[in-house]
Amino acid sequence: MDARRIESPRVLEKAIRMVSLMSYGWEGEKVRLVPLDKERHLNNALRWLNDPEVTQWLLIGDFPLTRMAEEDWFDSQKEVGEKTISFSIETLEGEHVGFSGLHNVNYRHGYAETGTFIGAKECWGKGLGTDAALVRVRYAFEVLGVRLLLSGYLDGNLRSKRMLEKAGYREYGRVPKQLFKRGAYRDHVLMVCERG
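User: That's the sequence. What structure does it adopt?
Assistant: C-alpha cells below.
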C-alpha cells in the first residue's frame, strides 16, 4: 500500500480508534494504572506519604519519609518482578493521583494481596480509587490469572470500605484491635474478591 495515498475517512477513523485502544497502561473509565516513573511520581509520593491527612488510615506514614528512602523504594521497583506489581494511578488526562499494587502474588495457589491509595486530596470522593481498584481486579484476574484477591482496611475507614465493596470485595473477617494507628488500636477488617 502506498503510504502517500490518502485513506478514506472510514479507514482513518478505524486507525484512530485502534491507536486509542493501545493506550499507555491499564485503563478504566476514569483512571489508568501505569508503571512507576521516578521522575514523574516520586515528588508526589514524598508529599503524600508525609501528609498526616493522607496517611491517616494507611499502615505507612507515621514516621518521616526521606527522599533517599523513597528513591531507594522506587529503585527497588525498577526490576519488574512477579511477586510485587506496583502501579501509579493517573487520570485519563495524565494527572498523577495515587498508587495501587499487587503484593505477595502466589501463582501456585492463585492469590495476591492488594492495596490502593489516592494521595491527591482534591480528587477524594470522585470514584478514582474505585476505578483503580476495578482495573487492578481485572488485571489480576485476566492477565495474571490469579483467582483470589485479599485486602484490608482499618475499621472506621469508610472510603476504603466503599471502594473495596464497589470493586467486588466482601468482608470475610476481622482481627480485633490488631493495628495501632493515631492513638488507638483498631480492628483490621479483612476483605476478599473472588474471580467469578
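The beta strands are 26-27, 31-35, 85-91, 96-106, 111-118, 148-154, 170-181, 184-194.
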